[in-house]
């Protein structure tokens, strides 16, 4: 679905508004409702403080991003909207924040053939003559199977396969991260190596290389994190094993993603070094016996 808007304004965080009222479809939507970034009082303050710029009316503009940034949100939330826009609109200019500088943004846009981009600067209110706002009926963490299939198909078609296939069993390490790491990773990697796994850090690979690796993999193991979003490229009936801290039931996005993709999914709850930390921050100890218990059927 696409919402068409005339003369509305947009901020770099993706919020679209007119007459100090934010368009809900431009916001992050959870199961509890939309996450409101700005109320009318805040928008009024921005109106007086921020620079104002009117974009030229040569072609329609498209916005697919929101205030939640990063690889997971881009690949699974923004890219499906971008693909919808490409199907419906022959020629458009994509609006993106100027601080979207990570390589995966440029890589995915290049592979999808997106060349017209207007980079939104901070502290600026942009008036957009014609804005197309693709949106879905699903809340964040709920996935439309057709949308995921389109993401997978688009990139598998754009990324040519290599003559020599990669490893079939992958372990995603967060060894280079500053948080949410596996504390007994040496022991975990030693156990996984006995089952034929290759350990790697996805940040050492380009987006295209990650697509190729996962398209060939039959088993993907890793701690809760954006790297698991790459399960969207796994072949059908592949296996995913996720390490994560137990919590009160929030943020089970990868559980839902694997279920939607019809993958064989195993969730291993792990003890945290600091149980007061959130799932997003806690370093974990993996129970090697529990891991080994799910590997034999997974490895086949």
Which keywords apply here?
300 residues, Rossmann fold, 2 domains, 8-stranded mixed beta sheet, 6-stranded mixed beta sheet, globular
Can you tell me about this structure?
The chain has 300 residues and is α/β, with parallel strands linked by helices. It starts with a strand and ends with a helix. The strands form three sheets. Strands 1, 2, 3, 6, 7, 8, 9 and 10 form an eight-stranded mixed beta sheet that branches. α2 packs across α4. It is built from eight helices and 16 strands. β8, α3 and β9 form a beta-alpha-beta unit. The model has no long low-confidence stretch (mean pLDDT 90). It has two domains: 143 residues, no CATH class; 131 residues, Rossmann fold (3-Layer(aba) Sandwich), CATH 3.40.50. The relative contact order is 0.13.
* Spatial extent as radius of gyration: 21 Å
How would you characterize the largest beta sheet? 8 strands, mixed
CA(first)-CA(last) distance: 42 Å
Provide the low-confidence segments as ranges: none
Share of residues in strands: 25-35%
Mean pLDDT: 90
Q: N-to-C SSE series? A: EEEEEHEEHEHEEHEHEHEEHEEH
Find the structural class using helix and strand composition. alpha/beta
Report helical residue fraction.
25-40%
The backbone outline, from C-alpha atoms, is: globular
The count of domains is 2
Number of helices: 8
Number of strands: 16
């Amino acid at each position: 679905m696409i919402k068409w808007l005339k003369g509305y304004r947009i901020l770099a965080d993706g919020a679209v508004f007119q007459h100090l009222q934010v368009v809900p479809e431009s916001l992050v939507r959870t199961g509890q409702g939309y996450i409101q970034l700005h109320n009318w009082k805040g928008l009024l303050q921005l109106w007086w403080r921020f620079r104002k710029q009117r974009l030229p009316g040569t072609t329609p503009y498209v916005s697919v991003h929101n205030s939640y940034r990063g690889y997971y949100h881009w690949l699974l939330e923004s890219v499906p909207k971008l693909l919808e826009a490409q199907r419906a609109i022959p020629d458009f200019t994509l609006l993106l924040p100027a601080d979207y500088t990570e390589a995966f943004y440029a890589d995915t846009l290049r592979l999808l053939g997106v060349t017209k981009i207007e980079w939104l600067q901070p502290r600026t209110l942009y008036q957009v003559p014609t804005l197309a706002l693709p949106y879905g009926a699903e809340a964040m963490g709920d996935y439309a199977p057709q949308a995921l299939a389109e993401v997978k198909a688009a990139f598998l078609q754009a990324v040519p396969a290599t003559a020599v296939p990669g490893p079939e069993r992958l372990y995603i390490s967060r060894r280079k991260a500053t948080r949410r790491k596996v504390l007994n990773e040496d022991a975990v990697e030693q156990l996984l190596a006995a089952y034929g796994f290759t350990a790697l850090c996805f940040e050492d690979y380009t987006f295209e290389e990650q697509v190729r690796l996962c398209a060939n993999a039959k088993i993907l193991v890793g701690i809760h994190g954006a790297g698991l979003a790459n399960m969207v490229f796994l072949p059908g009936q592949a296996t995913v094993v996720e390490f994560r801290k137990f919590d009160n039931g929030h943020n089970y996005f990868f559980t839902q993603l694997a279920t939607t993709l019809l993958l064989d999914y195993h969730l291993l709850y792990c003890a945290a070094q600091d149980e007061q930390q959130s799932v997003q921050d806690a370093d974990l100890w993996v129970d090697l016996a529990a891991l080994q218990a799910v590997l034999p059927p997974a490895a086949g």
